[in-house]
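Friendly challenge for the regulars: who can give me the structure tokens for this chain first? No prize, just bragging rights.
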Amino acid sequence: MKHAAIFDGEEYDAREVPGFENLQALGTPEKNTEFSGEILPSDGAEIYLRHDLALKPKLAYAWKGVTGESENAYGKIVITKEFQPDQEIVLPAGETLVVDFGQNAAAVPSFVFSAKAGTKLTCLPSELLNDGNGAKERGMDGPEGSCHRTNLRMQDTGMILDYTFADNKDYASFTPHNTFFGYRFISVTATDEVKIKQLESIPVTSITKEMETGTITTGNPSINQLISNTIWGQRSNYLSVPTDCPQRNERLGWTADTQVFSETGTFFANTNKFFHKWMRDMRDTQHELGGYPGVAPVAQYGAAPIHSPIASTQVVPIVDCFRLDETLSVLVMVEYAATATFKRFVAQPVAPLVIAILVAVDVMVIFRFIKMVEVFLHGNPTLIDDLLVVKLLPNDPRHNDTGIRPA
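First reply, four minutes later:
Bragging rights claimed.
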């Protein structure tokens, strides 16, 4: 492996001897003098390749050349060959292979292939194909039928898989282990003829088969598709942290995105340990005055702390897990978060005044006001409604007698 990163992709040269077999070729290790925190063993949110969910090509074709190109349109590709499922794919130099796996997912392409030594294969993942004769006014970045990559925001420099063949007498197997992509389609080119005996898309996720708690199938195809989208969305975005997206150059643990979905996610998988790990990320990013940033861990976006000693984006995911499984680990997290936050709160100069106001004013009025604000901000009451309204406002229940949340 020559280079790898989650945004860049992976560059692999099979001609190179692995470093563990050629120690003298390794550089001098760099000593890090900046890090002063703890390095702890992983306990939740590990990343797995889900071979049990391997996706096979639904459609595959090679193309070369374009028709209908104009000043305002890229035109339409000229297909040279379509491949049947499980058919060996022979891709000549100068042609482009497009493969549709039929499912958008956080995944990596896995190859069994062969080519002459030194042949370089380049694989570009994408979520959609260009259409409409490649009309530029519609945001197309290539001819109809080719892979569209502009939405990745670094389409020319990132999300790229390069593989250089060694002098193998037989087929070689390759599955990237140091990056991942968010895609449904791939575009493949090579500097010389490549034979692809097997090609799969292997989902990458922190949701293991054992964590999944079940599925539901109805008599309505549209509802079934919605459920499928939800499950695949969870698999693709619960990846070390609850990400906002698995495809472009972001993939961050946005707190607000997470708290919207966290309750739904608990019905499809046991997410206790996953959120246990992410709560540690939250605590690591907490400002000394108690506020939390918009993402955890801190990254290139959303790093400014929210000026609130405790935020629903921190507590709601914990509460959602706690509702379904009253495990000690979750209870400890709730207690820790509440205790640490309260200590920070009471240390602020304004704390005595706030406490005095809370005592002096009717508490019911305060809860009513907070609920009204949450409805205004979120569209529905969230944390306060979930935790307190049931107990404090018996005439305004969290659920009705059927167990269904009232409209």
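The radius of gyration is 26 Å. The chain is about 25% helix and 25% strand. Your move, everyone else.
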